[in-house]
Amino acid sequence: MTELPQNPCDVLEAIARRHSVREFRPDPVSEQVLLQLLEAARQAPSAMNLQPWEFVVVRRPETKARLAAATAGRNAQVVQTAGASVVCLASLRQADALADRIEGQIRAGQAPPDREAMVRRLREDQAYRQLLVLPNTYTAVGFLLLAATRLGLATLWMTGFDGEKVKEAVGAPAQDSLFAGVVAVGYPAEGWQQPARTRRPLEEIYSFERFGEK
């Protein structure tokens, strides 16, 4: 098993170091390390403490093959080569659980009755439900990526999959979860050269107080 570096970086350095690796060597990633990544994802913030994320770690060759069948091209090679892949899902059941909590608060007099409108949206408005669970799950994915970088691991976040096939491959509930990507985790292939990172200039992306003002 490949040893992790002895000088892990801090979070700002991890942000600067993180990049997408598209060629991995097949060294396994230990369960202990994978659990560290998932614990980091678990600590992500979420609206109303929704915590809608769920993760399925894929390591066995037969599961990797099923996952690869849900995509094409380089992504298929990546998931079969990397030490592990993490299927990221956004749980609609957590929107229902939030509706249950709010209803309980209303009955107990801890929330105003006008919050019943939110309960209805949480239960019935599918666009609202998706808009609520997906962005929060993406935040948790970002935490996972940074934790992996801090521990010296390479990652690639991929969304170019057939989400329904991915859910079938890992036995996830088709109706209660939304596909939020696959993160390959492992060690870069020997000789892998990361292309130069391109980012918009800082001064191009921000304003103070009013759009367009510096």
UniProtKB/TrEMBL annotation:
GO terms for molecular function: oxidoreductase activity. It holds the Pfam family Nitroreductase. Keywords: Flavoprotein, FMN, Oxidoreductase. The keyword Heme does not apply. This is NAD(P)H nitroreductase. Residues 15-187 form the Nitroreductase domain. It comes from Symbiobacterium thermophilum (strain DSM 24528 / JCM 14929 / IAM 14863 / T).
